[in-house]
Amino acid sequence: MEDQMRLQHAFFSCSKKGAYVILSNSDTPQTRELYKDANIHEVMARRAININTKKRGQISELIITNY
């Protein structure tokens, strides 16, 4: 979570300086909360590798932008 909070800080810091910012991240309640003040777009991503075979295939991922 510490790394996620640093990433969020960098995202909004760059945004405040006028940069266009985009990142992708896992679709979790924590991620959605961290970026609730940004534009969140949900996309489906294909994953072929996972220790849990039931989690292979299509998963929800977030594209987060400030524009």
Task: Kindly describe this structure.
The two termini are 25 Å apart. The mean pLDDT is 94. This protein has two helices and three strands. The longest helix has 15 residues, at 2-16. The protein has helices at 2-16, 29-34, and strands spanning 22-26, 39-47, 57-65. The chain has a three-stranded antiparallel β-sheet, with no helix packed on it. By secondary structure, the protein is α+β, with helices and mostly antiparallel strands.
Task: Give the helix tally.
Answer: 2
Principal-axis shape: elongated
Largest sheet, strands/sense/barrel: 3 strands, antiparallel
Mean pLDDT: 94
Biggest sheet strand line-up: 1-3-2
- Cα-based radius of gyration, to the nearest Å: 13 Å
DSSP strand count: 3
Distance from first to last alpha carbon = 25 Å
Quick rundown:
By secondary structure, the protein is α+β, with helices and mostly antiparallel strands. The protein has helices at residues 2-16, 29-34; strands at residues 22-26, 39-47, 57-65. A three-stranded antiparallel β-sheet has the order 1-3-2, with no helix packed on it.
